[in-house]
Amino acid sequence: MQLALFAATESRVVTPYKTQLLKWVGNKQRFAHEIAGLFPEKIGTYFEPFLGSGAVFGTLAPERAIASDVFQPLIEIWQTLHEAPERLKEWYAERWHYVTSGEKVARYEDIKARYNADPNGADLLLISRTCYGGVVRFRQADGYISTPCGVHDPIKPASFFFRVDEWHRRTEGTEFVAMDYDAVMREANPGDLVYCDPPYSHSQAILYGAQSFSLDKLLQSIAHCKRRGVYVVLSIDGTKRSGDLICDIPIPEGLFEREVFVNCGRSMLKRFQMGGRTLENEVVADRLLLTY
Question: Containing domain of residue 186, as a range?
Fold first, then answer.
């Protein structure tokens, strides 16, 4: 497999887009344009079956896309963005005013408790923008959100409304579905592109404890796509601790044609785990594997 570096001759031109709608662990907003720049110039439908915050998808702003995740409350947010953006604004404004008009931590805990009793997109939206570092952490046993309130106040409604309008415009051609990645990837046709950003085995398992995930199964799905002429890009563990730890993931021989490492900077998840201490030795690199 060829180890590739970013080069103008290999990349489409993708303009950086830094405006996040959601804060989410593993968010790739800062370097999403570099990832999207490796996609073929011409693709059919764009698929992103581990949607999360949708950083790469939002930066690419494809004409046709199917964006999915098995996490229903998350998809509820995206579906509301697409179908009823004004309602999404109302969700946020109502909860923002509640949190900021009293003791912030206590009121954040109220919303978190309500979410844990009845998981829903409206409460998850506020939690994602208010919790520590955007690290929405799920308890492995039952999916209970355990992340404490962050130090900084959530963005004001006017700023969030602007983001909603921007993201609504960028995702007009998208269908958002709550579906397992394998089922979604089976819908991809020759010339389509699937970008997979699954939970990372070395760092994010606890954050996705409520979801079952098998890397072997995903690799089988990717192999099926490749045989059908579907382009696939996989983001997977690369290096941590300033390159000292190589996250060795068993990859079937011949499945991928190219490999690229992208510097992701400091790990926000690690900052959360270290109680906010400095992260000079916790630089993370994302490993991109391409089937073409």
Answer: 1-70+179-291
